[in-house]
Specification:
Oligomer: single chain
CATH class: Alpha Beta
Order of helices and strands: EHEHEHEEH
Strand content: 15-25%
Largest sheet: 5 strands, parallel
CATH topology: Rossmann fold
Helix content: 25-40%
Distance between the termini: 14 Å
Strand order of the largest sheet: 2-1-3-4-5
Radius of gyration: 13 Å
Number of strands: 5
Amino acid sequence: MQQTKILVVEDDDDLREAIVASIAELGAEVESARDGVEGLERLAVGKVPSAILLDIRMPRLDGQGFLEVLRAEPRLANIPVITMSGGPTPPPVPPVTSRVYKPFDVDEVARILVSLGDSETA
């Protein structure tokens, strides 16, 4: 996962920190945001991430709203998104690459990200 940037958008501080640490161990650059508003702010500047890990239920701007804005922006529309949720959620705005349900093993998310990188180079 060298030279890969991942954006983690998650409102739970402990979970966000665990995910960031796990992904960083793979050698990826990781940026994080506490909610959808902060996530969109991160996307407005800097390098476009290779993938986004997105919580669905968050304050200010939830995952659904974040996805709607993301998919409407041509520069960002094709970023692979892995949604994270604590329970059943309505179908997200496509395309969502994968879904994980809380509680999950952080290594599971890391495996999904590695598989995304593998498919990009295949």
